[in-house]
Amino acid sequence: MTTLSPSKPIWIYDTTLRDGAQREGISLSLDDKLRIARRLDRLGIPFIEGGWPGANPKDVQFFWHLKEQPLTQAALVAFCSTRRPNTKAAEDPMLQAILSAGTEWITFFGKSWDLHVTEGLHTTLEENRAMIADTAEYLRSQGRRIMYDAEHWFDGYKKNPHYALSTLDAAVQAGAEWVILCDTNGGSLPYEINAIVRDVQAHFQQQQYTVKLGIHPHNDSDTAVANAIAAVQEGAQMVQGTINGYGERCGNVNLCSAIPNLQLKLGYSCLAEEQLANLTETSRFVSEVVNLAPNHHAPFVGRSAFAHKGGIHVSAVARNPLTYEHLQPEKIGNQRRIVVSDQAGLSNILAKARSFGIDLDKQNPACRQILDRLKELENQGYQFEGAEASFELLMRSTLGQAQSWFEIKGFNVHCDMGASTPDPTMTSNALATIKVRVNGRDFLEVAEGNGPVAALDAALRKALVKFYPEIGSFYLTDYKVRILDGTAGTSAKTRVLVESSDGLNRWTTVGVSTNILDASYQAVVEGLEYGLLFVHKTQEKDSSQSVNLASFG
Ligand SMILES: CC(=O)SCCNC(=O)CCNC(=O)[C@H](O)C(C)(C)COP(=O)(O)OP(=O)(O)OC[C@H]1O[C@@H](n2cnc3c(N)ncnc32)[C@H](O)[C@@H]1OP(=O)(O)O
Ligand SMILES: CC(=O)C(=O)O
């Protein structure tokens, strides 16, 4: 079991695999669930809720897999509801399925709000209390440890505090070790959380309960993180939430924000310090597995969370990062980024040069030339913040450091779009001819493609791969087109962003023209040039390292 520092421990309970999977657009396979569980286990999350065994075959298999090959640190938790009204807990098939999952811990949820009891469950207030107590007692009698999720706690308490508190009494007196107050509809604001958690603490003290308290906020009012913090400040010791805030409707509390706020700002202990530095990677891993694009602007873990764009900011951050950063990005495994755009100043150029391994000094007049060229091109429609490879090529060419790998002497693309009903078996409808000069000699190449850009790209590679075999491993991973002046109709200027890869690294280049083919051509050519530059830079670095090592040998 995970051990936390004794100073102000907060138990993090992850429900990405259950409540997170209730988000529209997420559909996890068994393998996805297992991969996420193991990653959260490595991160040191103490409680991982795996799902609702019995609700679907996948969740049954998930618990079965983890029974065979258990997690190493975390306690795996099975989730379910109370028994059905007017039945016996021992005869409830759903509770039998939960027990078969074989976990030490079980979380079950019950109704706190009288409206839900009478209108949702269609039963009496008394029977609902009995359902809670019987479920806890039965699961306890089977040797399990119990957490009780008080569904709709805050709404229920606001409407009928006396009845709501009596449902908690039922759970605690029947042996629940934790009571978790759920803001199920996500409508509460932090001041309400403060006041209500304080009332619950007072009630528990009066009853001399030793049960521990947790919070499970949803984000419908965009205050889930603030609500979790408010509850913790009133004495809650557990936060139930999800990675990246995934969850039904607007999501659950985002653990990637709650954890660093609690730990780095308020001095609570949620994760081991060295594990906190894996939070960014975990956030991105989970977004990859659930197949949702990461939110670049997410606080703490987003790609842009520490990205500086304005020249004034970059200049100050270069002197002292505290000027525009609320904490050190490395603490949660993120990193500072400097973005180049028409909002840049010389400081952005210098910072970028450093990151490219280019030795550049503010006194060098080329520095201002690069900045002016950047602003002029951005004014024409280029966008370098999303195309850093093109910016490195621009910088090197202004500094006279560009290597001439090849020169395009001309190209021609022919598209055959004549057929009124396209033949689905036809893989090619475009033909590109290109003349390229390499090492002082001209070469003519022809290639087909299923579109003009594909044909041009194929012809170019065919001409170059003889000289630069590494080009054989480059491929296009993304192609984006944006119309820059929408009112100009089909004669509008277009910006094309091309992302290329060598299987390990990715880089993006940009082209702008009123002719979409010309814009694509610029971006594709720069993609190949940058790929060659990158491969050669890496080889030089590797060989200089081996020379250094040899000199130590
Ligand atoms: C706040 C939360 O996030 S709670 C978790 C919500 N998550 C899910 O619902 C996902 C998993 N759910 C499921 O797979 C299914 O809904 C199941 C297997 C649980 C139940 O399926 P079904 O038997 O077909 O019932 P259905 O989904 O239509 O309705 C839910 C039933 O649970 C009952 N129920 C709701 N809350 C509770 C509770 N706390 N205790 C006992 N029963 C409850 C409802 O009254 C309803 O009963 P009814 O069938 O007698 O009308
Ligand atoms: C239990 C739960 O997920 C909720 O009330 O939101």
List keywords for this structure.
18 helices; elongated; 553 residues; 18% strand; binds pyruvic acid; TIM Barrel; disordered C terminus; 3-stranded antiparallel β-sheet; binds acetyl coenzyme *A; 8-stranded parallel beta barrel; alpha/beta
Architecture overview:
With 553 residues, the protein is an alpha/beta fold. It has a domain at 11-289: TIM Barrel. Helix content is 41%, strand content 18%. It is built from 18 helices and 16 strands. It has helices at 30-43, 57-68, 93-100, 114-120, 125-141, 153-159, 161-173, 190-207, 224-233, 255-265, 273-276, 279-289, 311-319, 346-356, 365-380, 388-398, 452-464, 516-552; strands at residues 11-14, 47-51, 75-81, 105-111, 145-151, 178-183, 212-217, 238-241, 307-308, 337-338, 407-415, 430-438, 441-449, 475-483, 494-501, 506-513. Strands 1-2-3-4-5-6-7-8 form an 8-stranded parallel beta barrel, surrounded by 9 helices. A 3-stranded antiparallel β-sheet has the order 11-12-13. A 3-stranded antiparallel β-sheet has the order 14-15-16. Helix 9 runs parallel beside helix 10 (255-265). The radius of gyration is 30 Å and the shape is elongated. Mean pLDDT is 93; it is low at 546-553. Acetyl coenzyme *A binds at residues 19, 22, 52, 55-56, 81-82, 84, 109-111, 120-121, 151, 184. The site of acetyl coenzyme *A has 15 residues, from strand 4.
